[in-house]
Amino acid sequence: MAKIIMASTLGSLILICFVQATNMASQSPTANRVTIFQVSLQCPAAPQIGCGSAAKPILLELERDPAVQEAWLNRTGTLIAVVWKLESNSQTRRSIKSRLRLAGCCAREQEVTEIKRESRAEALKEFESGHQWYRGAEVDRLSEEEAGIIAARVVRRVEVKTTLAKDKAERLRRVLAERLRECFTEGRDQVALSVGQLAGEFLDERQIAILKQAMESGMRSLLNEE
Question: What is the 3-state secondary structure (H, E, C) of 12-37?
Fold first, then answer.
């Protein structure tokens, strides 16, 4: 009887292990179904992170293709990982690579290259960790971060030329960040409201003029700026 119970228990354990292994296999794509490309999709105004507004249409377009299961961008905007569907073949994959290359060239006038050999193994390990990779619309989180970086930069420019109370500086930063976020994630070309409409409630006329000047200096960091 004990032997029968033991055999039954072992059988159950084997079945459980098999099911768990199957589930893991279905969740994690095998290495031969992932292609990783080196791209240049960093934010000009925040080069330490990827540009969500530039990457988003590329990732979404990739995932509309029947051969593609998933498309991801890494945090720094230097890598795109394409996970292929099981039924995809070399011909359909080459077609996607060609379209991605054209998209990349249009975006940054640089060749998009497939990573291979040792570099691929390292990039694949990074991708499989799942840490700080963004799929499709998830890159809006990078756009939100970019908006915050730019807003803080503009506020610092204003504070160089005028004294802002802490609460006013923080309110200005929040207002600018929210408006920029809308521009980046909703596809607007520019900040929709004038400087006066953005901050007229809590800045005086002189401070508004300084803010306008700060914004006209551009979103990218100037000399000696962060």
Answer: HHHHHHHHHHHHHHHHCCCHHHEEEE
Confidence of residue 20 (pLDDT cuts 50, 70, 90): very low
Contact 177, 151 (CB under 8 A): yes
Q: Which residue has the tokens 């960093």?
A: 42
Rounded to whole angstroms, how far apart are CA atoms 16 and 22? Answer: 10
154, 211 in Cβ contact below 8 A?
yes
Take residue 2 and report the two structure tokens written for it: 């004990």
The model's pLDDT over 64-97, given as tens digits with 9 standing for 90+, comes to 988 899 999 999 999 999 999 988 777 777 777 6
Contacts of 128 by beta carbon, 8 Å cutoff, 6+ apart: 28
Q: Where in the chain is the domain with CATH 3.30.70.100?
A: 30-131
pTM: 0.78
Q: CA 91, CA 74: separation in Å to the nearest integer? A: 26
The CATH code for residues 30-131 is: 3.30.70.100
Are residues 47 and 39 in contact, defined by beta-carbon separation less than 8 angstroms? no
